[in-house]
């Protein structure tokens, strides 16, 4: 194999958006016969099953037991591998690379910033530690424009920032939408306050007179949110219309079975859910946060709900539920065309290789 030796480094292979992207990138690079390894340090491996077993010698979990032990083990790994470039995903991986880098031979380091509000929801100390790491990287690659604004405001040199959006593998023929029955709504993501699954249930409880079914796929992160949702389902007698399925490996089947994907998150960078919906030719109803209004053309490739309006999500849902299946499917077809043109995995991987080679 020719070209640089590359290490992709992340905290885990749990069922998150960054984990999904790093696995897709690894798979596409290997399909191109690029010399690439994937390493993580927490034994959570939801996405491990998506990688062909023949790639096992290119995968390594360091099994973090302490911060000092992780630094030591990663140093040994880097000394053995001697990569030309390391791409780190998420804050923990970035700060670890920053600590290890002076202890090993020089390599190009790309810090992949996945968040739209890079320093929200973390302490001041962790924020400063992350900024310390970002300043030491050769290149910082956010997946959205909002994150660039945040990083520049925090003093990072804009010349060392390059935006590469998330990518998606798109098949030749998307699944046909449901032909009959109530409109099927799908939400994919963690049961987490920031994702707003409780707001969706609240809104749908006020639209009981319309024909719909709602499915949610994703792991439970906030037990109190899950309990509150269950209480609302029972209070409004929605047990036969609302289903929470937990984490699933067959999420593609849920996309195929739905008419509309609902994703009203209030903290989002570049959601894989949006790309997965478009790849299945399904439109998405999203919030007006971060980059989402830049990505979704309201009424064309999906719909945007204003979260500051307490009735915003309900009213947008009411509007969409009043449309015909053909109108909703047409929006999904336009989303698919958008994904093919701008977010196909081949295109985004080309951009990653340019960044890794230092082109541009």
Order of helices and strands: EHEEHEHEHEHEHEHEHEHEHEHHH
Q: What is the helix fraction of residues, given as a range?
A: 40-55%
Rounded mean pLDDT score: 93
Under the CATH scheme, the architecture of the largest domain is 3-Layer(aba) Sandwich
CATH class annotation of the largest domain: Alpha Beta
Number of domains: 2
Short descriptors:
2 domains, Rossmann fold, alpha/beta, 360 residues, 13 helices
Q: What report would you give on this structure?
A:
With 360 residues, this protein is an alpha/beta fold. The protein has 2 domains: 6-167 and 344-357, Rossmann fold; 183-342, Rossmann fold. Helix content is 40%, strand content 15%. It contains 13 helices and 12 strands. Strands 3-2-1-4-5-6 form a 6-stranded parallel β-sheet, sandwiched between helices. A 6-stranded parallel β-sheet has the order 9-8-7-10-11-12, sandwiched between helices. The chain is globular and about 65 Å long.
Gist of the model:
The protein has 360 residues and is of the alpha/beta class.
Write the layout of secondary structure elements.
Layout: E1 6-10, H1 17-31, E2 36-40, E3 59-61, H2 67-81, E4 85-89, H3 91-100, E5 108-113, H4 124-136, E6 139-142, H5 145-153, E7 183-188, H6 197-205, E8 212-217, H7 223-235, E9 242-244, H8 251-257, E10 260-263, H9 272-279, E11 284-287, H10 292-295, E12 302-305, H11 312-321, H12 325-342, H13 345-357
Parallel strand pairs: 1-2, 1-4, 2-3, 4-5, 5-6, 7-8, 7-10, 8-9, 10-11, 11-12
Helix pairs in contact: 2-3, 3-4, 6-7, 6-11, 9-12
